Amino acid sequence: MRIAVLNYSGNVGKTTLSRDLLKYRMPDHQIITVESVNSDGKETLVIRGDKGDDIYTEMLLNENIILDIGSSNLESFIHSTEKESEIIESIDLFVIPVTGEKKQQADSIKTMQDILIMGVQPEQIRIVFNQVNDNIDPKEVFEQVILAARKLNIPVNTENLIFRHDLYTNGQSLEDMISTTDYKAKMQEAKAAGEQEKAREYAMKHVRQRKLASLDQRLTEIFERIMS
Fold first, then answer.
1. DSSP SS3 for 2
2. Residue 84 near residue 78, CB atoms below 8 Å
3. Which helix (H) or strand (E) segment is 96 a member of?
4. Amino acid 115: pLDDT
5. How far, in Å, CA of 33 to CA of 6, rounded?
6. Order of all β-strands in the sheet with 125-132
7. What is the band of 172 on the pLDDT scale with cuts at 50, 70, 90?
8. What is the DSSP string of 43-71?
């Protein structure tokens, strides 16, 4: 499957979702970053949006691709697809992450409109609501995007929602951070040995581990919905 993750807005979570929502659950897929520079050095391949021939070549060679399209390169990527229509025709699914800020919502709506003009079918588009505060009603916060999507016949599921959290540190991926270590057992051992500081350290690691497991479960559920 070929998947594009895109939005005219930056800082909506495109790279994180490409990696942790998609690649982590589709290990046979290659991430291609459509960007001017390789920001973190981790992706296998980085291609500028105006290099349509290079993008098309990679898509011909590999059916299992995740295109992480940077906001600054989306317009040039669209121009490239206008020159070679098979680029857009070869993509099976378009994932649009959106956050609650008004500008990001407006940019998300423009993203939907523009890829529909390019010939993408509404049922190929998936919206993921990202960085959402857990004390608000997403249907109210994202009303602008939801109404626009419905007018455009794009499917909307507000269960495809990721709450704001502080789990990512030092550029680590979800795969890097998830651990099967039994920190609760280690905490109990440290407590029994009278090592209170070590016990506290293990307790904090157990709490973080549980939060990571919860995030992973939510991403799994979103993944299953957007792929169905």
1. strand
2. no
3. strand 93-98
4. 97
5. 11
6. 45-47, 30-34, 65-69, 2-5, 93-98, 125-132, 161-163
7. confident
8. SSEEE-TT-HHHHHHHHHH-SSEEEEE-H
Dist. CA 160–CA 224, nearest whole Å: 10
Q: For residue 59, how many other CB atoms are within 10 A of its CB?
A: 18
The pLDDT score that the predictor gives to residue 40 is: 56
Q: What is the pLDDT of residues 91-129, one digit of tens each?
A: 999 999 999 999 999 999 999 999 999 999 999 999 999
Instruction: Say how far apart CA 131 and CA 46 lie, in whole Å.
Output: 26
Instruction: Please give the model's pTM, rounded to 2 decimal places.
Output: 0.91
Cα 54 to Cα 85: distance, rounded to the nearest angstrom? 14
Assign 3-state DSSP to the chain and report helix, strand, coil percentages, each to 5: 50, 15, 35
CB 19 within 8 Å of CB 3: no
**How far is residue 153's CA from residue 121's CA, in Å, rounded to a whole number?**
9
Q: Which helix (H) or strand (E) holds 176?
A: helix 174-177
Q: What is the dihedral of CA 56, 62, 66, 72, to 10 degrees?
A: -20
Residue 208, SS3 per DSSP: helix
Residue 181 CA to its chain's centroid (Å): 27
DSSP states of 104-170: HHHHHHHHHHHHHHTT--GGGEEEEEEEE-TTS-HHHHTHHHHHHHHHTT----TTSEEE------T
